[in-house]
Design goal:
226 residues; 8 helices
Amino acid sequence: MLKNQNSISTRYAWMSGLIFVLLLLAIKANSALLLKLDTGIIGIVQDSLPEFETTLMTLVSKIAEPSFAIVYAVIIAAILWFMRLRVDAIWTLATIGGGDVVAYIFKEIVQRARPRWNQIIPESGYSFPSGHTFGAVIIVFFILWFFVSQIRSTTIQKVSQIGLIIWVVLVMYSRIYLGAHYPSDVFGAFFLAVAWLVIARWLYKLLYNFVAKVVEPRSEGRHSQH
């Protein structure tokens, strides 16, 4: 199924990777300009903290927990396996697992402390990149590629796409609103996720036939026709 789907443009992939690296370097260099932008955006987002909005953002953040992203990926992989799309199922698990490792490595490299003010939900660990945002972007692309793309109605497809985009924006907003991350953390996670998905798609194509021989020995190449 995945071979049928349009991949992310190579141009966007390179742009995403470049922006991520620039953010990483700026943070490591303790850029005063970046910190000013970060704190300015946080001030705007946290200008008012109404109880309803706080409750909503807390719920969004809970649903987008990185540990839940793994659960969502397992569910998606199980559905694909049941549909006999076994290479796609394995790729899904490998992509979320490998992505978490990549994000963790960058967290350890940068070791950025979290914002020190207005933390509505106390968070531990390093701040860059945002694990919530990274996981949300990965899961949303899984849903777009494997399920939304199969919807026959163009209108329902568009509505679904818009809804998923709004969800990612809400997750990013919630992490800033709750004081868990700087804006550059969530944007960095977004661009890292896009770049990682392109790498994962490249690995999918490169290793497809090998994996298919292992998991589908009686139907070799069935999905390669897609």
